[in-house]
Write a structure and sequence with these properties.
Elements: H1 9-23, H2 30-37, H3 41-45, H4 51-74, H5 81-96, H6 98-108, H7 116-130, H8 138-157, H9 166-194
Helix pairs in contact: 4-5, 4-6, 4-7, 5-6, 5-8, 5-9, 7-8
Length: 200
């Protein structure tokens, strides 16, 4: 007597994420994934109502993995070193999981139905930006950092860095951003020292 192979939501997601990195999203189907897992397609539908439902869950899981990497990279560091470490981790993740990263970003563009992990990542970045003693709105600062990082990822993916190592190129951008940030903080501190009543 044969017994059905045991699967779970987690094993399905892990298999699907590995599949898209090897073969691309276009090649992913519930039937192909089921065959790879050694089960019938109906077994997958117990966990995911459709391929679109599965892709949404993958985008959310990708966000969770990215957030874990960002949090680990920034852990124990003081600002702005935590932001620099987080930026490096962001680039590494996007290069390690390019298809999953692209899927995550695609679902982030859907205003009505974003994965919950997107808001969690944004809250974490906003928390780091909010710890910096600047006159800039933390949301603007976080958005500028995100634009820089995502731009680097897209240039790398399109092979437009002219053979340069993106992990080395990003250091130049980070140096420029950090220099500007520290100069801004220093200017604010100097202004406060010369006019201690300015912020009262």
């Amino acid at each position: 007597m044969s017994y059905p192979k045991k699967i779970s939501r987690e094993t399905i997601l892990a298999s699907a994420m590995a599949f898209i990195e090897d073969h691309g999203v276009a090649e992913l189907s519930m039937r192909t994934l089921a065959a790879n897992l050694g089960v019938t397609p109906n077994a997958l539908y117990r966990y995911f109502a459709s391929k679109a439902d599965l892709e949404f869950a993958m985008a959310d899981e990708g966000g969770k993995l990215l957030l874990a990497d960002l949090e680990q990279a920034a852990s124990g560091l003081a600002p702005p070193d935590d932001i620099r470490a987080m930026a490096r981790a962001y680039i590494r993740f996007a290069r390690r999981y390019p298809k999953l990263y692209a899927m995550k970003m695609q679902h982030c563009a859907l205003n009505d139905d974003k994965p919950g992990s997107h808001d969690a990542i944004w809250a974490f970045v906003m928390q780091l930006a909010g710890q910096l003693p600047t006159a800039w709105d933390p949301k603007d600062l976080a958005m500028s950092l995100w634009a820089f990082l995502h731009g680097m990822v897209e240039l790398d993916r399109a092979n437009l860095l002219e053979g340069r190592d993106p992990e080395a190129t990003i250091e130049v951008g980070l140096d420029v951003m950090m220099a500007g940030l520290l100069a801004h903080i220093s200017a604010l501190a100097s202004a406060q020292m010369s006019d201690p009543d300015a912020n009262k």
